[in-house]
Amino acid sequence: MENISMRDAFFDKVYEIAKEDRNIIIVSADMGAPSLDKFRRDLSSQFVNVGIAEQNMVTIATGLALSGKKVFTFAIMPFATSRCHEMIKVDLSLMNIPVTIVSVGAGFSYDDSGPTHHSIEDIAIIRVLPNMTILNSSDSVMAAKFAEMSCKMSGPNYVRLDRETLPPIYNQDDSFSDGLTNLKAGRDVCIISTGNMVHRAFEVSNKLEQHSINAGITDLYRLKPINEKLLLRNIEQSKRIVTLEEHLITGGIGSAVAEILADNGKALPLKRIAIRDKYYYAYGGRNSIQSICGLDTDSVTKTILEWLQ
User: Fold this and answer.
1) Residue 233 sits in a domain of what CATH number?
2) Do residue 10 and residue 156 come from a single domain?
3) Verdict on whether the full-model pTM lies above 0.85
4) Is 66 left (phi over 0), alpha (psi -120 to 50) or beta?
């Protein structure tokens, strides 16, 4: 899993399952991938390419699901979510139809394509929809497990995949049924993160150790429904909470954690670190854009240190 993308890890697993279960169908919006080439070659009757027609993709997937098929849709993240939001609401969320929306390109993954291809608001617009499950992968091991989990879900499911091939955090035998994992205990502060920013959280935690600050890390990979009881149990071990995400600050995991703390009467100090309320017309690579946004390791570390002081 070290040299395989989340996308290929996910669809390689779907392919394995689809060979035995001919009810599994992939509906793609003009997207290619090595893992999808096998579907076209070996399981052509289980693969539909609708072309650049993402909204129609959701409607076709809904019809197939109503006919008893297990359907996965696939497109670049902003086109799979923002462009299709009404169809996801009306066709999937409203009728609780078991279709898995698979998308690649979380955050600034498509750094060279500008803000039209950045996916920094999708969590906010999808998590407000009833009946939805949201899974956000932090490595390829998790992505493959999400494929297995998605095949068993009885309602609509949204899977976020990063375009970048990230080093593995988890092992093949890890279970992701809890919705979150406490990767590192922290006495002074708990950093709650998701997706590629979990890797950033490790870098920040190591830097904070140099300042005698013990920072824990929680990977929140099921963004809806959140396992509130386990989350509250984990964060109560720390004095303060930081949320870290490559998403707009409004409506992301920072908002979700703040809601949970408020609803449960928890008065723990919370610092949300995310993309400020603006779009970035910046180029030079993902790391450069993250630096401009204050999401690079040094900036996040500085923000936490100033907050703690």
Assistant:
1) 3.40.50.920
2) yes
3) yes
4) alpha
